[in-house]
Amino acid sequence: MSELTPELERKLGIAVERMPAFPRSVQRVLELTRNINCMPKEIVGVIEKDPVMTMKIFKVINSAYYSLPNKITSVGQSVIYLGINTIKNLALGFAAVGILPRTAPGGFDVQRYLLHSLVVGGVARQLGTQFAKGEVDPGDCYIAGLLHDFGKIVLAEFLPVEFSQSMRHASEQGVPLHQAETQVIGVDHGFVGAMLAQRWAFPAELVDCIRDHHDPNVASALLDCLRTADQIVRLHQIGDSGNPWHAGELPLAPGRFGDDLEAVVEKIGSLDKIVAEAMVFAQVAHE
Question: According to CATH, what is the number of the domain 6-285?
Fold first, then answer.
């Protein structure tokens, strides 16, 4: 990507500043879970101070999807049944959904974008668990999947004309959306998403992953899992990120996963469970 012009840098800075702040309580949860000496009760204490977040967590874990033997009535119980990473991911997901607009200008479907992002997060988490054990935290894979395309929301809301032109250019020319964005706007959604993640004080590794997820010159276990999850979800046309699958598109991490994406899906099992989890989550998040 070429250097930003002063005018584009100014526009992006204003756009990122106009996005809602990420809830401090969820940022604190992320900080705590990165400390190996952190006690679960500390995380429970932070979540319990957010009654709306707590209520939504209860709705999800008491849904038919999880089918737990007893109704959960405390965050502490939920940690015992599902583990602290699941509760952390639920809290993070609800916070992210709370920031999303219900609709966006320019024909960008926010709800289908949300389904795409949730399923990418779930698939990336499973890939991290099975194919990158000891190299990456599966929870980080989920977070990366959930947030990797958030720059599209910034562009759709605050540069709607340019973003619509980018989507049209990508469709008409048959090129990936991030390339069209660079050609039309001068920057891609990964760069913008990283600006937002940095403003939200997310860990540097996550900021870098969001920025670099379309850069073939940057590689890591986290990026392998994210890129492959995104390809699998686009191949199966689950949700819509504004960047449909292109015939002849090659797997982006063949060294880790091989060159057959359907074979990877078979190894992680059916996508149905991950999609069902995402749909339950999305429904509760909007209540």
Answer: 1.10.3210.10
